[in-house]
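Example (one chain per record):
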Amino acid sequence: MTMRSIIWKELRERPTALIASLLAIMLSVTALVAIRNVTIFSEKEVAGKLDKLGANVLILPKGVTLQDYYSADMHAETIPEEHVAELALAGLTGVEAISPKLCVPTEIDGKNVILTGILPQEEIQKMAAWQGGMIFKKHEGCKAKINVIDENQDAPEALAERRALQNLNEDEVILGSDYAASNGLAAGDSLELLGEKFKVLTTLPETGTVDDSRVFAHLHTVQRLSKSGEVVNIIEVMGCCEDIANGLVGDLQSLLPGTKVVTIANVVETQVSINRMMTNLSYLFLAILIAVGGASMASASFANVMERRREIGTLMALGATPRFVTQLFLAKAALLGLAGGITGYITGSVLAMFLGPAFADVSVLPVPSLAFISAAIAVLVTIAASYIPARQAAKLDPCMCFKEV
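Predicted structure:
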């Protein structure tokens, strides 16, 4: 009789103990998979929403305050445009987008307008390409996607939400909603600006901010028309909130010592606190899995050893080694752990698909990688919980077992 046949025979003859152990493991894995599944998609949803709020790190001239930034970015001080190249080539982990701006008050057709120069992300990416490097390092700590090369967000209208633009030619402009409406302009129209003609690439949706009255043009075009030179008023940075909290601001200050680096604290703290709360919940349910599943398996294994003392003694009297007995119990534990892990993953994934929209207001889909993780954890927990009972069974004296009958 082989080890496999012995295990299957016991599982068939003692289904009650099997079902109890399997349920304990399955329910623990179900809870772990469900909360982790919802956590993953909730973190992505939160990161995506906060990504749309715009820059969460601002690089300003030394004498400029955050209040000046919110006052339509209008201040007289500037910083060299070369800081953009330094920042792009530094390869700082967590920097996801860089958007330098130069704001110049001007007059078009007798109306005061804020002419804002922006540098397309395409040109920033080329800076690193010339050096044979990458602009933005991918990293594991951030829950948001690297957003500057997202083809779904390349539309010019994305500027209103993302504060950055992928492509913009030097003879094109983008109009704020108020300016476009008051002048009857739409995409494809022509606009004369400071003696030069420009094509209206698009008009932005209404945002309720000063951006509604802006005219956006290429940074180098605005520098040339305003004769301001190669300078900018501000560099807006979209950084991963996890990395900002872990020292990205200090790295930026060291890289650009002649500037002031300011974080929009509420945006950073919101994402970090939510992400940490979700992660802590995952750890809590992992602890529950280890405690409940492990205790249940250990209890069932001890009881199984006590019930099968005569059978174990018979096996050893027939020549079974202590190693064989230990492997017999551990193999059964591993089989139960694998079955509990897989069934727990399936039920947890289904449960998460219902709990996600109901409690976290996010759509949730199964995460295949959790199948391997949950099965591995369940197997490890059941083997660890059964090890001591298995060793106890292997040390039984066959003669003493028969005396007790």
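Caption: DSSP finds 14 helices and eleven strands in the chain.
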